[in-house]
Design brief:
Elements: H1 3-22, E1 33-40, E2 45-54, E3 60-68, E4 75-81, E5 92-98, E6 103-109, E7 122-133, E8 143-146, E9 156-159, E10 163-165, E11 168-171
Parallel strand pairs: 1-11
Antiparallel strand pairs: 1-2, 2-7, 3-6, 3-8, 3-9, 4-7, 5-6, 9-10
């Protein structure tokens, strides 16, 4: 076998293994799904609802997201709220913003063995992230995706006692703003 064929075979094997490593993985039932629903607030400000559908108890969640409004419009995640969501009572709720890479990493832990219950099976809103334009330019469209943020935060849900679950990731089309008269 010549060098070219060996290289092609190695690349094919690598691609097959990489696809399996990145696939959703849930040994506890159906694949859990994280739904992202962006919506336009007033042109220069958007909201992004983060919803979860799961079929097992979850004691921790790690959700790194990246945002883009195009090459000429720098944006920032101004704030993240958990109030009214299914993790509102969690003891540890963090939204770490990285303006340079336009990313937000959400970290959630229920109580590290205390009285706060885990997220039960079901569906519900985890958080709402508010995004605004740094350049005071209207945001015509907002794209959201999952990513890996430093040091090595990737999309992960944790089932008790400490079993990792990799959910599916779905971004819904943004809602169109309607003019009210």
């Amino acid at each position: 076998m010549n060098t070219k064929n060996t290289l092609l075979m190695a690349m094919a094997i690598l691609l097959l293994f990489a696809a399996n490593l990145l696939a959703q993985n849930d040994k506890f039932g159906k694949v859990d799904t994280l739904y992202i629903e962006p919506y336009d607030i007033d042109g220069k400000n958007w909201g992004v609802n983060v919803f979860l559908v799961n079929d097992e108890d979850l004691i921790a969640l790690q959700i790194p997201l990246t945002f883009s409004a195009g090459k000429k419009n720098r944006i920032v995640a101004d704030s993240t709220i958990f109030k009214g969501g299914i993790v509102e009572d969690f003891r540890f709720k963090l939204a770490r913003v990285d303006t340079a890479t336009q990313c937000v990493t959400i970290g959630l832990i229920n109580d590290l063995g205390g009285p706060i219950p885990p997220v039960p099976p079901g569906r519900g809103r985890l958080a709402t992230i508010f995004i605004s334009s740094l350049d005071d330019i209207p945001i015509k469209s907002l794209s959201v995706d999952t990513t890996t943020t430093p040091p090595s935060n990737d999309l992960q849900l944790v089932h008790p006692p400490t079993e990792g679950v990799v959910p599916a990731f779905v971004v819904k089309a943004p809602e169109k703003k309607t003019d009210k008269k």
